[in-house]
Every structure is written in C-alpha cells, then in structure tokens.
C-alpha cells in the first residue's frame, strides 16, 4: 500500500480511482486489519490504495469528517463515491462488502 506523501498528492489522487485508508501507527484496530489489506488490493486492482496518517494529515481528516480510525474514503474521477467512517473496529469482511458495494 502506498503512503500519502503530501496534501497535493491527496488532491491529485482524488482524480483517479483511489481508496484512502486513514490510519495511525498507534491504532490497534488498524493493526488488526493490516495483514489482510493486500488481499483487498489484489481483489480491487482497479483502485490505488493509499494509507493516510491521521496524525500527519489532521487537516485532511477534519475537512472530511474523519475523527475515528480506521476509516476509508473512495474517489473516482474527482468525486467521492463512498465513505466508511467511524471509530468502531472494522473486519476485513465489512471492508470488502463496503468496497464491493461501490462497483
């Protein structure tokens, strides 16, 4: 999974098919899903998956209403087509169902 390098890159990636995963190094729920994320990247190859460090990019999180992690925003051609936001623990099956619902 790619890591967001700067805010300009975030804006650029919104123009393509991108799944943004908002996470943090200290987040235990993020660590639980981390080993299974490559499976989702393989299954949804039309998307670029990008990890966004919540602490480093707090302004982006505030702008998009992301207070809990892990959370997901999905963009296609410059428009947000889906969000899975919340502080609750998410299973890989729930994330898969969310991504499948976007196609």
Count of DSSP strands: 5
Range of helix content: 25-40%
- Based on CA atoms alone, the radius of gyration comes out at 12 Å
The low-confidence runs, each spanning 5 or more residues with pLDDT under 50, are none
Termini gap: 21 Å
Largest sheet features: 5 strands, mixed
What does this 3D model show about the protein?
By secondary structure, the protein is an alpha/beta fold. The protein has 5 helices and 5 strands. A 5-stranded mixed β-sheet has the order 1-3-2-4-5, with helices on one face. The two termini are 21 Å apart. The model has no long low-confidence stretch (mean pLDDT 94).
Mind sketching the topology for me?
Blueprint (H helix, E strand, L loop, with lengths): L1 E2 L3 H7 L4 E6 L4 H6 L3 H7 L4 E6 L4 H6 L7 E6 L2 E6 L7 H9 L3
Parallel strand pairs: 1-3, 2-3
Antiparallel strand pairs: 2-4, 4-5
Summarize the structure.
This protein has five helices and five strands; from the N terminus they run βαβααβαββα. The chain is an alpha/beta fold.
Notable traits:
103 residues, alpha/beta, five-stranded mixed beta sheet, 5 helices, 5 strands, 34% helix
């Amino acid at each position: 999974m790619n890591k967001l390098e700067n805010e300009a890159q975030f804006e650029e990636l919104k123009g393509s098919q991108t799944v943004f995963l908002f996470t943090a190094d200290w987040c235990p729920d993020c660590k639980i899903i981390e080993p299974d994320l490559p499976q989702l990247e393989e299954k949804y190859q039309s998307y670029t998956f990008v990890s966004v460090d919540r602490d480093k990019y707090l302004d982006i999180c505030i702008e998009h209403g992301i207070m809990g992690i892990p959370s997901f925003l999905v963009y296609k051609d410059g428009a947000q087509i889906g969000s899975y936001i919340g502080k609750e623990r998410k299973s890989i099956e729930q994330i898969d169902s969310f991504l499948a619902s976007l196609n």
